[in-house]
Specification:
Helix content is about 35%, strand content about 20%. It is built from 22 helices and 23 strands. The strands form seven sheets. Strands 2, 3, 4, 5, 10, 18 and 19 form a seven-stranded mixed beta sheet that branches. Strands 12-11-23-22-21 form a five-stranded antiparallel beta sheet. It has a three-stranded antiparallel beta sheet with strand order 1-8-9.
């Protein structure tokens, strides 16, 4: 090899070493940079990924508190239910998994994907509930195919059990899965998608007591998802139970008395405000709202003209009809416009200017005083009194008895009803008040409306010498050991401070309604206990001919309010039968059956009524109107 060749070879080797050194330096720099990136920038994400690969969180839902009646009988409890959950970080083929789940459960794929999306933002090892209420066959299918459908998990969650099906459904309410909107509310910040939450009634209004605190286990699993060990465990804390004021046996009797009528009933303790029975008829099956509502049943609920999903007792606003005449009477007595001897000659009509206001009895009642006007529900007597009082004065006394504002039972959605005044109408419609409108209000018609709950409270106030206690539905809150955490005492809401003699005169008229000849409420009579009441009929539309009256939705509502015993009142009741036409014929018999059951449960009435107890001469009634 020549010297020149040797030098050239050395130069080639030097260049190779240089490029090799540069390449090694670049590679080393890349490795260092990557190590720095992983160690300092990606450390948290990688740590989470590592934990997700070996950890699994198994939530353990807390049992909701039970709902118990005033005598210790369980109305609503819990039963185990199977739910299907997905653990996102264990799913290798999302579309394949969702397609299979949708096919087996016969659910819409988009619905399942929407539930999956609810879990975004949480750790991927926390399960997301895809479906609830699985059958045993469905559970077995997913257990047998857990290797093929990796990422799925069966959870056991307590759900509500309703042994009495639809009993008191509007009062108790129902539960359902927490919505996306509810999850954004701070009150529900600890809830997870798939959790159950009260949606209506007591279940909703007392959610914070009933829900309890969920627990869970953090476990370690291998690559196939098999359990290795428990790392951490938090036991669930059951919700607190509620002892309600209602009597389940009286509630059953109430709903039995209503049959298939569209109606509402509220019965309450006169001296405490405790609700003894609360019915909105027809009811619904709250268990259907826990899972996926069958479309055909949902359609039936929506198309039923009796509106089974509406809480009529709390939200139904009806003209009170002649059940309001006691308020007009008390206003007249208190203002010195009438006394027990004041009489009016009812010819069947009353004229005001060019308008004619007719009594329900077209032939007229003849000369009537306060007692007979209440007993026979004479409209003309109260037309004349209302004309002298004026609407604002009538409204003043109506509000003394809790009408025109929410009475505060403690359940969401309570309506206020309407007690009109001249100022109210001008603000509402921009028009002035007319005297003829006062006449309608004086007999419980026109703009005036009230809920069955308000009518029950009003009647309790009349029975209780003008004192009205706030209606309430919960007696006690119990902890998981059955110890009392809180007890609800009677709360005096209003005291009308009316003269006892005035209240006595009105109550004597109510006693005559039920117990004297020509009284319109004879169907509520009990022979062992004195019942005082008042019938009412509220107009739905202005009926122009007999044909319109035959259409169900055009028929008048039937009302009846009562209290008993007359001498020492215990219970007050309000009954509204939608489109029942006459209070004496449709609502009073319902009240009579409920009151009879109440006194049977107390041992006051020890045998059923028989035909021999009924004196036909005492059962006379004009048969129409109220």
């Amino acid at each position: 090899m020549s010297k020149q060749q040797y030098v050239r070879g050395g130069q080639d080797l030097g260049r190779r070493l240089y490029f090799l050194s540069v390449a090694a330096a670049v590679l080393f720099a890349v490795i260092l940079t990557r190590l720095w990136f992983l160690q300092f920038i990606e450390v948290d994400r990688l740590k989470e990924m590592s934990e997700n690969n070996r950890l699994r969180f198994i939530p353990v839902a807390a049992s909701r508190g039970a709902l118990i009646d005033r005598n210790g009988k369980v109305i609503v409890n819990n039963t185990p239910s199977f739910s299907l959950a997905v653990i996102p970080n264990e799913v290798t083929d999302k579309d394949y998994l969702i397609d299979n789940v949708a096919k087996v459960l016969k659910l819409d794929k988009e619905e399942l994907l929407a539930k999956w999306e609810k879990g975004k933002g949480r750790a991927k090892y926390i399960p997301i509930i895809l479906a609830s209420g699985l059958t045993r066959d469905q559970v077995e299918y997913f257990e047998e195919n857990n290797l093929r459908l990796n990422g799925l998990e069966i959870e056991v969650k307590p759900v509500r059990e309703y042994p009495n099906v639809s009993l008191a459904s509007h009062l108790l309410g129902y539960i359902g899965e927490v919505s996306e909107k509810e999850l954004t509310v701070p009150e529900f910040s600890n809830y997870n998608p798939g959790d159950y939450i009260g949606k209506s009634g007591i279940e909703r209004s007392f959610e914070s007591y009933l829900h309890g605190d969920d627990g869970g286990r953090q476990i370690e699993v291998d690559a196939r998802g098999r359990y290795l060990r428990t790392l951490n465990e938090t036991l669930p804390v059951p919700g607190q139970s509620l002892v309600l004021t209602i009597d389940i046996d009286l509630q059953k009797a109430t709903e039995k008395a209503l049959g298939d009528k569209a109606a509402a009933v509220v019965a309450m303790d006169v001296n405490s405000g405790e609700i003894l029975s609360f019915a909105s008829n027809p009811g619904f099956d709250p268990a259907l709202f826990t899972g996926r509502m069958p479309p055909e049943i949902w359609k039936q609920y929506l198309e039923d003209k009796r509106r089974p999903l509406e809480n009529k007792a709390l939200k139904g606003m009806y003209p009170p009809g002649s059940t309001f005449k006691m308020i007009t009477a008390l206003a007249g007595l208190s203002e010195g416009l009438i006394d027990e001897n004041t009489t009016v000659n009812c010819t069947g009509e009353h004229k005001l200017g060019n308008a004619t206001f007719r009594c329900w009895n077209k032939k007229g009642h003849g000369r009537v005083n306060l007692k007979s006007a209440l007993r026979e529900s004479c409209d003309v007597y109260f037309y004349q009194l209302g004309e002298r009082l004026g609407v604002d004065k009538i409204a003043e006394y109506a509000k003394k008895f809790g009408l025109g504002e929410p009475i505060g039972i403690g359940i969401d959605g309570e309506k206020s009803g309407v007690v009109p005044t001249a100022a109210w109408k001008e603000k509402k419609t921009g028009t002035k008040w007319f005297k003829g409108e006062t006449l309608s209000v004086s007999i419980g018609q026109g703009y005036l409306t009230a809920t069955p709950l308000q009518l029950a409270a009003m009647t309790a106030g009349l029975a209780n010498d003008g004192k009205i206690y706030r209606p309430h539905v919960v007696k006690k809150i119990l902890d998981r050991d059955g110890k009392t955490l809180r007890e609800y005492a009677p709360e005096l809401l209003k005291n009308s401070s009316l003269k006892p003699d005035h209240l006595r005169l009105v109550k004597e008229g109510m006693l005559a309604v039920v117990n004297e000849p020509r009284g319109t409420g004879a169907a509520a009579r009990l022979y062992e206990v004195k019942v005082a009441g008042k019938t009412g009929t509220s107009q739905v539309v202005k009926q122009k001919d007999a044909k319109m009256a035959l259409a169900y939705l055009h028929r008048d509502h039937a009302l009846f309010v009562a209290f008993a015993p007359y001498d020492k009142p215990e219970i007050a009741i309000a009954v509204v039968v939608e489109h029942g036409e006459h209070g004496g014929g449709a609502a009073a018999p319902v009240a009579g059956q409920i009151l009879r059951k109440y006194f049977e449960l107390k041992g006051v009435i020890k045998r059923p009524v028989t035909d021999s107890d009924i004196d036909e001469s005492d059962n006379e009634s004009d048969g129409g109107g109220d």
